[in-house]
Design brief:
Shape: globular
Radius of gyration: 22 Å
CATH topology of the largest domain: Rossmann fold
Number of strands: 19
Low-confidence stretches: 1-39
Largest sheet: 7 strands, antiparallel
CATH superfamily of the largest domain: SGNH hydrolase
Organism: Sediminitomix flava
InterPro entries: Ester_Hydrolysis_Enzymes (IPR051532), SGNH_hydro (IPR013830), SGNH_hydro_sf (IPR036514)
Protein name: Lysophospholipase L1-like esterase
GO molecular function, one term: hydrolase activity, acting on ester bonds
Pfam families: Lipase_GDSL_2 (PF13472)
Length: about 450
């Protein structure tokens, strides 16, 4: 059995699963030599990548990340508490190659136990691409709506998607560990929906399950609690009174009671900053999810537009940040800058330089943290180097699977530098505090 601290490449995963290797088990004997908490890189020799600038820059003078790092520190040292991270963005996030690999790296890092799968949306129900690491099956007719499509109107939340059905008796089945490096236990499920008198009831399909499921209704979600972990999520949507007509699904949160890190992702194909401003329930759902760190990766689609205006982009992004922070003024936020890309596969995109500048300025204005992917990947025309090294797709906008894996490792390395810096500062302060306490 593989243990935490062992780096697992996604390229090896299919063969391992076929062979029956449980890469997430903590059972069995510990290996004689335990690897360090550091991870192995795909390749550290890309000269075009600015390793020297690969940092999480904190414009809050090392304070904006403190609450997040403090919770991580408690988890590392005492193995207590939950640390919830939510990463929202565009198509770079929806497919979950980038965020999925970050999640796996948290698992492989022996310092931090992992907890639950976290927030998911069954994109397949909305006729969109679903991450490969969880499987979705359903019955009934469902209509998907996406915040990035101007003609679509809906009550969106964090996911930026909704799936709506008028089919009485429609069902949803999710296998949260269908093709995942990490096997997450789930015994609590929150089903987020529009609510209201017209909404169908959502119930857990317990047929043949042999487990008691407690159901609790809240204003905009239904909570299911199981007496033991569930291998699959099985929901049914039922009309139980004449005034009910449909059900609008906004997403699910898969949880458990174990301490550890949860790394959730919610991406929307073609999303811009303005798209997320259309999400009426975004702030309320963020309050309910209550992340210890919110990562926002937007700007690629804004800057891809030939009519991109730096001032308008800044105003809209400022509006989005203000909207989020109005409800949660102490929320820790990490912004990321969009990577270099081409427009229409052949035109150098100078707009990303402007988008990067805006994001750095807003991070300073709101005293947030930022990871400058644009600079780290090499800046203007760096996408050519990534493509030549087999890290980018043909469109020179999206990375390929290997590229997203490498981006995830750069992200995690920058996180590790920031966290280790925090730990060193914290532990330097300890002796002086202890001496002061004894003196008193």
């Amino acid at each position: 059995m593989l243990r935490k601290g062992t780096f697992v490449s996604l390229f090896l995963l299919p063969a391992m699963l076929v062979a029956g290797v449980n890469v997430c088990s903590d059972e069995g004997e510990k290996p004689e030599e335990k690897k360090s908490s550091k991870f192995e890189r795909l390749d550290a020799n890309f000269t075009f990548v600015r390793q020297d600038l690969n940092v999480w820059e904190d414009f809050g003078q090392d304070k904006s990340l403190n609450s997040f790092f403090n919770k991580l520190y408690t988890l590392e040292k005492e193995k207590k508490g939950k640390v919830n991270i939510l990463h929202i963005g565009d198509s770079h996030i929806q497919a979950d190659f980038l965020t999925g690999h970050i999640r796996e790296m948290f698992y492989m890092d022996e310092r931090f136990p992992m907890s639950a799968r976290g927030f998911v949306f069954p994109y397949r129900m909305a006729r969109s691409n679903n991450p490969k690491n969880f499987e979705v099956n359903y019955t009934g007719k469902w209509t998907g709506k996406r915040i990035a499509v101007r003609k679509h109107k809906s009550d969106w939340g964090v996911a930026g998607y909704t799936a709506d059905t008028y089919t009485d008796g429609a069902r949803l089945r999710i296998l949260p560990n269908a093709d995942s490096v990490c096997v997450f236990e789930t015994d609590e499920i929150k089903v987020f929906d529009q609510g209201g008198l017209k909404a169908f009831d959502v119930n857990y399909n317990t047929e043949g399950l042999g487990v008691d499921i407690k159901r609790t209704e809240a204003e905009n979600y239904t909570l299911f609690e199981s007496e033991k972990p569930l291998d699959e999520i099985r929901l049914k949507f039922q009309k139980t009174s004449p005034h009910q007509s449909h059900f609008m699904l906004q997403g699910l949160y898969l949880d458990n009671q174990k301490p550890g890190v949860t790394y959730s992702a919610a991406g929307v194909n073609s999303a811009t900053v303005n798209s997320f401003l259309r999400s009426e329930s975004l702030s309320e759902q963020l309050q309910e999810l209550n992340p210890d760190l919110l990562v926002i990766s937007l700007g690629t689609n804004d800057a891809y537009n030939d009519a991109f205006k730096e001032y308008t982009f800044k105003e809209k992004y400022r509006e989005l940040l203000a909207k989020i922070l109005k409800k949660q003024p102490n929320l820790t936020i990490l912004l990321t800058t969009p990577g270099d890309n081409y427009r229409l596969r052949k035109y150098v995109n100078m707009n990303n330089v402007k988008a990067r500048k805006v994001i750095m300025e807003l991070a300073e204005e709101f005293e947030l943290a930022v990871w400058d992917m644009y600079t780290v990947m090499g800046g203007l025309k760096a996408i050519d180097e990534w493509y030549q090294e087999g890290l980018s797709s043909e469109d020179r906008i999206h990375l390929n699977r290997k590229g997203y894996m490498y981006q995830a490792e750069l992200f995690y390395e920058a996180f590790d530098k920031a966290y280790e810096g925090f730990v060193q500062r914290k532990e330097r302060e300890k002796p002086s505090k202890d001496i002061a306490a004894v003196a008193r």
